[in-house]
Structure formats: structure tokens, C-alpha cells
Design brief:
The complex is a heterodimer of chains A (97) and B (546). Chain A is α+β, with helices and mostly antiparallel strands. Chain A contains two helices and seven strands, in the order βββαββββα. In chain A, the strands form three sheets. A three-stranded antiparallel beta sheet of chain A has the order 1-2-3, with helices on one face. A two-stranded antiparallel sheet of chain A has the order 4-5. In chain B, a hairpin with a 3-residue loop joins strand 12 and strand 13. The longest helix of chain B is centred in the last third of the chain and has 50 residues.
């Protein structure tokens, strides 16, 4: 099973389907995947959940930015585009200090 | 920047609608610069054609209306000269005719008086040949007087009697006098000397010379000067003024020159004809008095001859002029004429020699004359080759006049085409050189408008295609490190998903970078960016940029 791209991930799956929420490593703002519906077969539920998680994980990569300095996955609000190198806010402040 | 059609590929880029307006103008400029015929040459050709057409018009105008043609000049000169000479000729011949009537009357009365003093009738003259010499000598002074009063070359009187009626040929031999004031066969004869044909004793007693073709009497056989007036009088006894006869048949056989004779009967008071008298105009006399003006045309010939129906008959005629074609026996022949272009007549001699000129019909007889139907003609002609040479000479003159004008016209055409188009050429050169803002203005409203339109289009659409690409390459160097990395991925052909995975950035961050890239590279969309990237790949600049 893949490592989650963010440090905190919550599984909010229920009987309606599989749903995962990823949180920014800095501001903890959430991003939820779409709800993946299962087949209803209880014997296949675990494998379907893993597949839904991996898909959500890959999808989350398009919504988070990895800071090349601290390697954290941050949301767009916490990610700063600079001329030299794009970094997270905290790294930017650290660099400026 | 205008929007690029999303479906365009890189190869069609320069042909796209995007550059249509610019290409339309610059393409035409390039075409004008590199086409086979430049504007200047084209204008030069047009102006040269205009000059040629104008020169042709001038030449045609000169030949038809303005400058008289050689044929027209010749026609005018010949008509005037012919009229002048013929006027003098008819005047002389008319005077001679009048003088002849007077001479006939005078001789008739004088001879009748002489014979009456001897109690002899004129009809009995033949019976008294011993009186003939005395009668003739007595009339010598009257003949000389008549000759002096006219401009004729000779005067004659032939009586219907012979000094020796017993001779074999006495039937055709008649006694008479023939005085000439000119003898071409006598070299060095002094002026005023007279030459006599007739009784030699008369010549001796009166200090006259004998003619080179001297004879005692005159042969009247088949001599029109004798037969015609006498025969006509015997047939119809008309007044003397209606009986004189002009003819080219000489009275003297084997005369060295042609003559024209005017003869009239000698009639006594009883209406008996007893001889003829007349005047002679010799060829020499004719040449001296009726020489045409040869200042313009050297070979002009003036002829006086009988009219054969519609054409002058120069079998028998007199000529004046310097044309060797009319010397000796070569002069004989019929002049057949036909109209040439309604101006001059073309005359052909029997030997094929062609002449051009005019002729006038001369009527030497009064109305009611016995010979009124006989007509004469005076013609002024010259060899056709002379006129052809004059026409050629005139054409050369016209060409010499026109050639400098033509050259001048070409020079002016060249100058005008250069002067007129230089501002346009300079303006187009400025347009082609791509100078921002064309300051060059011509003094032509349409061209100025065109330049203004080009300027407006440039301001609206930006620089030309080649410059755009160079500008794009230059702008690539302004990208940041991250943008350059993203641009490199684009150059490598990565799609957005791959780029997101490789760069670990969100889609929004990618969009932000793209937005910055578009702004910096002066493109409006990813499609336009991809067109430039395709051009970079094709131009081989990819490695250099990466």
C-alpha cells in the first residue's frame, strides 16, 4: 500500500463508498477525494478500499505541492512561486531569515 | 496579439490567417522587388510606348497634314511650273496665230498688188515662173518683219507655183522662202543672222545665209502644213482666223531638229488659194524659251505635243529640259498615263521608262476653227526614280528629325520613371527593412495611405513573423528556473500529468507557472506556445535552449 503523500490522511469511507481526505502539512487544510463506490461484495471490500486509496493518493498529488526544501506536501496557499525556486511558506521565511 | 487557430500546425504557421494581412502586404512588396519586371521598368516601358505612339502620331500627322510629303511638294511644284510655262507657251502660240493671219493677209494683198501691176491674175502665177523669184524677194522684208514681231524661230511662204514646171517632180515642187533665225547645225553663227531656204540669189542679194538643208524649192507631197489648210479652205471656205493649222510635221526634210509649224492659206481677193505661209517654232527655240526651273528637280522635262485621244503623244513633239531620255531618237514614243494616288500621273514610255508629272490640254484653235477637234498637250514630267529618291530623302529627313525627339522622349521617360518611383521605392525599401514606424512619405496620396495602413497594421499586429520567432527565443531566456524546467518538459513533449508528477506541483501551481510563461514569452495560450516549441524543434535550436 502506498505511503500517503501528506502526513495526515483520514479515511471517511462508509457504506456509500470510499472517501479519503488529505491535509496540508503546514496549514492542515483538507482536500477530499471523490467518493468511490464499491461493488457491495463484502469479500472484495478491503481490496476495493486499497485501490480507492491509491487512486485518491495519486489524485491528491495534483492538489498539493512538494516543497523542494522540506519535502512536505503543502496546499497552493502554503506554496510560494519564487524566481529562484518554488518553496513552501515556512521555507521561504526561513530562507529570508 | 491575434488569436491563433487551434487546429493550425507549425508548418502552416506562416501561412495562417494570423499573418495574412502582414503577408499580403509584405508579400506584394517582395514580389515587386523580385519579380521579373520592376515597377520602374514597367513604367519605363509604358512611357516609352507612349513616346513611340506619340512619335508615330506626329509622323503620321506630319506626313498627312503638317509636313508636305515629297509627292505633294512635287505635285505642287509641277502644277505651278506647268501652269506658268504653259501660259507663256499658249501666249506665244496665240500671238503667232494672230500674226499669221495678219501675215497671210499682208502677203496676199502684196502679191496680188505685184501681179496686178503686171496685169497678171494670181491664178496665172504658175504660167509665169520667171516672176516667182522677184515676187518672193519682194516679200522677203515682210517675212522678216513678221519673224521679228514674233518669238518664232522661222517664217515661211510657199507659193502654188514652181520655177521649172517642166521638171519630172515639178508637180510636188513649189517655190517659196523659208527664213530661220537659228541654225543649230551652224557653229558660231552670230546673233541676228538669218538663214534662207529658197532662191540662192535672194540670199546673196540680201546678205542671208543659206540653210544647211538648203534646197531651191519645197516638196509639198504629203506635207500637212500645205495640204491641211489649203484642203480645208477648198472644202469649206472659212475665214482665215479659222484656217490656220498647227502641226509637228516639218516642212523641211531631214531637218536636224524637230519643229512645230503653223501654216495658213494665202488667198487672193477672188478667194483663190495660191500658197501658204506660216511660222516655225524649232526645238532649239522651244528649249530656250520654255526651260523648266530645275533648281528642285534636275531632270524635269517640259513637252509640247499633240494629244492622242486622252494621252500626250510625244512621237512628234518638242521638249525642253535636261533629261537625256529626251534626246535624239530615244525621245520618241507614246506617253501612256494613269493616275497615281490622285496627285501625279504616271507616264510610261514605249521603252518602259517611267515618269511622273502632269499635263495640260492646250487648245490652239478658236471656236469654229476647221481644226478645233485637234488638241495639244503640254506636260511637265520627271523620271519616277527621281521622285522616289526625293521621297526617300524626305523620309530620311523626317527620321533625322524624329530620331532625336525619340531619344529625348526615351530619356525623359527614364528620368520621369526614376523620379516618379523613387519615393515609392524608398518607402517600400523602408517597409521591407522592417523599420518600426515608416517615416518615409511619398508625395502621392494613394501610396501615403498605403503606408499609413501598413503602419497601422504593424502597430496592431506587432512585428513580422521572422522577428517574432527571434523575439520568442530571446524571451525564453527570461524564464525563472522553475519555469525553465517546465518549459524544458514542454520541449521534451511531456504532458501536464507527467509534468505534475515529475515536478511534484499541483495543477494550480502548474497553471500559475504556465500563466507566467505565457506572459513572459508573449503567447496567449498553450497552443500558441506549442507552435513555437514545434518551430524550435524544427529549427534545431532545442539543445541550445535546453
Amino acid at each position: 500500500m502506498l505511503e500517503p503523500i501528506t502526513r495526515r490522511v483520514t479515511d471517511e469511507s462508509d457504506s456509500r463508498g470510499f472517501l479519503f481526505t488529505f491535509y496540508c502539512d503546514i496549514c492542515d487544510s483538507p482536500w477530499s477525494s471523490i467518493r468511490y463506490c464499491g461493488s457491495g461484495d463484502t469479500s472484495e471490500r478491503e481490496s476495493e478500499r486499497i485501490a480507492a486509496y491509491e487512486r485518491s493518493n495519486r489524485e491528491a498529488m495534483m492538489h498539493f505541492n512538494r516543497c523542494p526544501v522540506c519535502k512536505r506536501m503543502v496546499c497552493d496557499k502554503c506554496f510560494v512561486i519564487l524566481d529562484e525556486r518554488d518553496v513552501c511558506k515556512e521555507c521561504m521565511h526561513a530562507q529570508r531569515k | 496579439m491575434q488569436h491563433i487557430n487551434d487546429n493550425l500546425n507549425a508548418g502552416d504557421f506562416l501561412d495562417s490567417k494570423y499573418f495574412y494581412d502582414i503577408q499580403r502586404i509584405t508579400g506584394r512588396l517582395k514580389d515587386s522587388a523580385f519579380s521579373n519586371i520592376s515597377m520602374r521598368k514597367r513604367l519605363l516601358v509604358f512611357l516609352s510606348m507612349l513616346v513611340v505612339i506619340m512619335m508615330l502620331g506626329i509622323v503620321i500627322l506630319l506626313l498627312t497634314v503638317g509636313l508636305p510629303s515629297a509627292v505633294g511638294d512635287a505635285q505642287m511644284f509641277i502644277e505651278q511650273e506647268l501652269s506658268n510655262i504653259t501660259h507663256h507657251l499658249t501666249s506665244q502660240l496665240g500671238d503667232a496665230s494672230v500674226q499669221l493671219v495678219w501675215l497671210s493677209n499682208s502677203l496676199s494683198r502684196s502679191i496680188e498688188y505685184q501681179l496686178s501691176s503686171s496685169q497678171i491674175q494670181i491664178s496665172e502665177l504658175q504660167s509665169h515662173p520667171e516672176l516667182l523669184e522677184e515676187i518672193l524677194e519682194n516679200e522677203l522684208s515682210l517675212l522678216q518683219l513678221a519673224l521679228e514681231k514674233t518669238k518664232c524661230s522661222g517664217v515661211f511662204m510657199v507659193l502654188d507655183a514652181t520655177v521649172n514646171p517642166t521638171l519630172t517632180y515639178a508637180g510636188n515642187s513649189r517655190a517659196g522662202l523659208y527664213i530661220r533665225n537659228c541654225e543649230p547645225a551652224v557653229v558660231g553663227s552670230e546673233t541676228g543672222r538669218l538663214f534662207l531656204r529658197g532662191p540662192s540669189r535672194i540670199a546673196l542679194r540680201n546678205n542671208l545665209s543659206l540653210q544647211s538643208k538648203w534646197d531651191m524649192e519645197f516638196d509639198i507631197q504629203d506635207k500637212p502644213y500645205w495640204d491641211k489648210p489649203i484642203g480645208q479652205y477648198r472644202e469649206t471656205p472659212l475665214p482665215l482666223s479659222r484656217l490656220y493649222y498647227w502641226g509637228f510635221e516639218g516642212a523641211i526634210p531631214d531637218l536636224a531638229e524637230d519643229v512645230v509649224l503653223c501654216s495658213i492659206p494665202l488667198i487672193d481677193s477672188d478667194a483663190n488659194v495660191f500658197g501658204v505661209c506660216g511660222f516655225e517654232i524649232s526645238a532649239t527655240n522651244f528649249k530656250l524659251n520654255y526651260m523648266p526651273d530645275d533648281k528642285l528637280y534636275k531632270n524635269l522635262v517640259y513637252t509640247f505635243s499633240a494629244m492622242n485621244e486622252l494621252e500626250p503623244d510625244i512621237c512628234c513633239g518638242l521638249f525642253s529640259g535636261h533629261n537625256a531620255m529626251f534626246c535624239g531618237e530615244d525621245s520618241k514614243g507614246m506617253l501612256t498615263s494613269r493616275k497615281v494616288s490622285g496627285k501625279l500621273n504616271l507616264y510610261m514610255k514605249d521603252d518602259g521608262t517611267a515618269f511622273v508629272g502632269k499635263h495640260e490640254v492646250i487648245n490652239l484653235y478658236p471656236s469654229g476653227s476647221a481644226f478645233a477637234r485637234e488638241r495639244f498637250a503640254a506636260a511637265l514630267i520627271m523620271p519616277k526614280e527621281d521622285l522616289d529618291a526625293e521621297v526617300f530623302k524626305r523620309n530620311i529627313q523626317v527620321a533625322l528629325i524624329c530620331a532625336p525627339l525619340l531619344i529625348l522622349g526615351f530619356g525623359i521617360s527614364f528620368y520621369i520613371s526614376k523620379k516618379y518611383l523613387n519615393p515609392i521605392i524608398y518607402a517600400f525599401d523602408a517597409i521591407q527593412s522592417g523599420n518600426p514606424g515608416i517615416a518615409v512619405k511619398t508625395n502621392m496620396l494613394e501610396i501615403n495611405r498605403l503606408i499609413d495602413q501598413i503602419n497601422a497594421l504593424r502597430e496592431k499586429s506587432g512585428p513580422l513573423p521572422d522577428d517574432l520567432f527571434d523575439d520568442f527565443i530571446a524571451r525564453v531566456r527570461t524564464l525563472t528556473r522553475t519555469e525553465m524546467e517546465l518549459f524544458r518538459y514542454y520541449l521534451e513533449g511531456r504532458n501536464s500529468r507527467e509534468i505534475l508528477s515529475l515536478m511534484y506541483i499541483s495543477a494550480n501551481t502548474l497553471k500559475s507557472h504556465n500563466k507566467h510563461i505565457y506572459t513572459k514569452l508573449n503567447v496567449s495560450s498553450k497552443d500558441e506556445l506549442m507552435l513555437y516549441i514545434e518551430l524550435i524543434r524544427k529549427s534545431g535550436l532545442m539543445n541550445k535552449i535546453i
